[in-house]
Design goal:
The complex is a heterotrimer.
Chain A lengths: L9 H4 L2 H17 L3 H17 L3 H25 L5 E4 L2 E4 H27 L2 H10 L4 H30 L8 H6 L1 H14 L1 H10 L18 H26 L1
Antiparallel strand pairs in A: 1-2
Helix pairs in contact in A: 2-3, 2-5, 2-11, 3-4, 3-5, 4-5, 6-7, 7-9
Chain B lengths: L2 H23 L9 H9 L2 H19 L8 H16 L6 H27 L6 H11 L4 H30 L2 H4 L3 H4 L1
Helix pairs in contact in B: 1-2, 1-3, 2-3, 2-4, 2-7, 3-4, 4-5, 5-7, 6-7
Chain C lengths: L5 E9 L8 E8 L4 E5 L6 H8 L10 E8 L4 E4 L14 H11 L4 H14 L15 H13 L5 E5 L7 H16 L3 E5 L3 H7 L2 E6 L2 E6 L1 H4 L4 H8 L10 H8 L28
Parallel strand pairs in C: 3-7, 3-8, 5-6, 6-7
Antiparallel strand pairs in C: 1-2, 1-4, 8-9
Helix pairs in contact in C: 2-3, 2-4, 3-4, 4-5, 5-6
The chains are: A mainly alpha, B mainly alpha, C alpha/beta.
């Protein structure tokens, strides 16, 4: 589960900025936590956030899948190959500080992944664009974030078509590294040049629809915001700053 | 930014996100996920290229669920600025100058990403760099050196190929299409 | 006689970096309600004429314009052949996509939705309002694009080969909507190689060759490359040759040309090639 999931949870109904602020707080807070206990409290907070969003099971499962390779590597890199002293875990001698570091780094990644999967699941791109428009954000920002996601499937399709067409013309995908490198141009060039040739039409279409009018765009369906949510967003920021303050103060002392 | 610049940035971002499909089909050990950023730097300029890099990083994270990549956004900014400077110096006009420029870019990019990878993630992000790091570490190389070596070796190759590809694109642009990009004339 | 919306007087235009001018010495008037068909082989400058007449060239595409151009139209819309490249990518429903234009101008919400509803009705696609544009067929999507252009209330709507990627039914539906736009006072500029359909809807026609206007006037005079016109000419009809079936029937058998577009019962007796029609 990666991407928006329809729902009616408090996170879904909240203003998109609030939902994203909570995820951002998890991301930034994760790097302020340096001890295993702190990091895993943050993981618990991330799971709580996912529960509020109504996607606890799905996001936990996906987060485990996404972070599993990282956990394995962390275990090998820090647990097995880490510094002294070692602890015995059955037949294997693991590095104690390495394990601690692996727990911190792994917990960090897990908290971030859970947080953002939840944010993605609870934030409809459409509502986010409306929120940005209602906020008076310049057209370009919303355009780049939302519109790129919409053009991606077509570009992927075209890349697949070019792959097929060139193979029909005799292009071989295998062979020596040099041969494979040479095959890059006949596959990438049509994609790039085709996309560049469409630019004029796309600009004209947008221009004709007033995208460059400079007027403040009317939000057609702006999400509701409230004073409480605004206070919550500022509080989250303050918490993150406090966490960093705590971290640096501890580092000094 | 003009509407035209926005559409070109969008093209650069889409290219960054899609080129991996082609690279994977060819089983090349690179990502080329900055080729769109470099192209936008050459066609438009540094500001647009920075936007392309940042948006690519955000969307990459959104699509793959790999959100630990967001701190590497600063590397995208560095790549964008380097590419714009290289384009201004005309280094993308010939392969003989584009490839060395790419190697230089790889060096600069790795110098930025290795510390981020080491200090924030202990050398473990997702992807091929981590695999190289692990192998080196298993051979007894200290972690910092392993992370740095992995970053440099993959980035040098990746950026050299990316700059070479952009050079070929620019040389293949039909004259009427090229004339629409004033940045190329400089 | 209303003042023209667009006047070109000896206008010439070159794209940046091009070896030859795309338009040379073009003079043209476009009046409200005109449905002007612009035809010509590839490279003749039909698309360029549309862009220059509506003011998008050189402002958006660059290039140099010389000669006289006066655009009295407040706003011009443009529609291209490929529906997909004309979507904003920001809108998850057809209604929002059509409303994008008025919303971009900062109009109040009620006015935005009213304009969108009007445009959807004009193209008879109100039933698609809640659909996702990404899920539509090419024909439906192209009508959404035209509606999106109309939502801004343009005085002039330029369509560059709008049915190129549509199946015949969808193309017919699109062309059938054009006379209604003309009747409502919008001037329609239609660049198209589809002479048959253009002949059905156009009130005026321009034929271009190598960047110059080769002929302009009534469709019957200019669009003489249609199958029907060729047939009529071969059959010995005097010029001007009828350009579509209805006009042909009206010429050779006035009493049987009532009702139905392009359909006819068995031709009445005595309407063969050599009855009452003399070769020029």
């Amino acid at each position: 589960m990666i991407g928006y999931v329809e729902g009616t949870s408090p996170l879904h109904r909240a203003h998109p900025y609030t939902t994203l602020a909570a995820a951002a707080a998890l991301l930034m807070g994760a790097f302020a936590m340096t001890r295993p206990l702190e990091v895993w409290l943050l993981v618990a907070a991330a799971l709580g956030y996912a529960a509020v969003g109504g996607v606890l099971r799905a996001s936990a499962r996906t987060a485990v899948l996404l972070s599993l390779p990282i956990w394995v590597v962390l275990f090998v890199l820090h647990g097995l190959l880490g510094a002294e002293p070692r602890v015995l875990a059955g037949p294997v001698a693991l590095s104690a500080p390495g394990l601690a570091r692996a727990l911190v780094l792994g917990g960090r990644v897990t908290a971030i992944v859970v947080g953002f999967l939840t944010a993605l699941a609870a934030t409809s791109p459409h509502r986010l664009v409306e929120a940005m428009t209602a906020d008076g954000a310049p057209f370009g920002r919303a355009f780049l974030l939302a519109s790129t996601l919409t053009v991606l499937p077509r570009m992927r399709e075209r890349a697949a078509q070019i792959l097929e067409a060139q193979q029909c013309r005799g292009l071989r995908l295998g062979g020596s590294p040099f041969a494979r490198l040479r095959a890059l141009a006949p596959l990438a060039l049509p994609l790039v040049l085709g996309a560049l040739a469409e630019v004029d039409e796309q600009v004209l279409a947008l221009d004709a629809r007033g995208a460059a009018s400079g007027a403040r765009r009317t939000a057609l369906d702006p999400p509701d915001d409230s004073a409480a949510q605004r206070v919550l967003r500022w509080t989250l920021l303050a918490l993150v700053l406090a966490a960093y303050g705590w971290k640096f103060w501890r580092m000094r002392g | 930014m003009t509407l035209r610049d926005l559409v070109l940035v969008r093209l650069g971002v889409a290219l960054n996100l899609v080129i991996g499909q082609i690279v994977a089909a060819l089983l090349l050990p690179v990502y080329l996920d900055s080729v769109g950023t470099i192209l936008v730097a050459a066609l438009v300029g540094p500001r647009a290229a920075i936007m392309a890099g940042l948006v690519s990083q955000v969307l990459n994270a959104v699509i793959s669920g790999n959100f630990s990549w967001l701190p590497f956004a600063v590397v995208q900014v560095v790549i964008a600025l380097y590419a714009a400077a290289a384009a201004r110096l005309g280094l993308f006009r010939r392969l003989a100058t584009a490839v060395p420029a790419g190697i230089g870019m790889g060096f600069v990019a790795a110098s930025c990403s290795a510390p981020i990878s080491y200090f924030l993630f202990g050398g473990v992000t997702a992807g091929g760099v981590t695999a190289v790091t692990t192998v080196l570490r298993a051979l007894g190389v200290p972690l910092g050196v392993a992370v740095a070596s992995a970053s440099y070796s993959t980035d040098l190759l990746d950026k050299a190929i990316a700059c070479a590809l952009v050079c070929v694109v620019l040389r293949t642009l039909p004259r009427t299409l090229a004339a629409r990009f004033p940045a190329l004339a400089r | 006689m209303t003042a023209p919306l667009i006047t070109l007087a000896g206008a010439s235009f070159s794209y940046p970096g091009a070896a030859r001018p795309a338009l040379t010495d073009v003079s043209l008037d476009v009046a409200p309600g005109d449905v002007l068909a612009v035809t010509g082989p590839a490279g003749a400058g039909t698309s360029t004429l549309l862009l220059v007449a509506t003011g998008f060239a050189p402002r958006v595409v660059g290039g140099t314009l010389t000669g006289g151009r006066d655009i009295a139209a407040r706003r011009c819309g443009v529609v291209f052949a490929r529906p997909w490249t004309q979507l904003t990518g920001l809108c998850s429903t057809v209604r929002d996509e059509v409303a994008f234009g008025p919303a971009s101008l900062g109009l109040p919400r009620a006015a935005v939705f009213a304009a969108a509803a009007r445009a959807l009705d004009q193209l008879r696609i109100a039933h698609l309002a809640d659909r996702d544009p990404a899920q539509l067929s090419g024909g439906e999507l192209q009508r959404v694009v035209v509606a999106a252009a109309l939502a801004l209330g343009p005085d002039v709507l330029a369509l560059d080969d709008p049915a190129a990627e549509l199946d015949p039914e969808a193309a017919d539906a699109l062309y059938d909507a054009l006379p209604g736009l003309g009747a409502a006072g919008t001037a329609v500029l239609l660049a198209t190689p589809d002479l048959q359909r253009a002949a059905r809807v156009a009130t005026r026609a321009v034929a271009m060759a190598e960047g110059r206007i080769a002929a302009q006037g009534r469709p019957a005079d200019v669009l003489d490359g249609t199958d029907v016109a060729l047939l009529a000419r071969a059959a010995g009809c005097p010029p001007p040759y009828p350009v579509d079936i209805t006009a042909l029937l009206r010429r050779i058998a006035p009493q049987s040309s009532r009702g139905g577009r392009g359909t006819s019962d068995a031709p009445p007796a005595g309407s063969g090639p050599d009855t009452g029609v003399t070769a020029p």
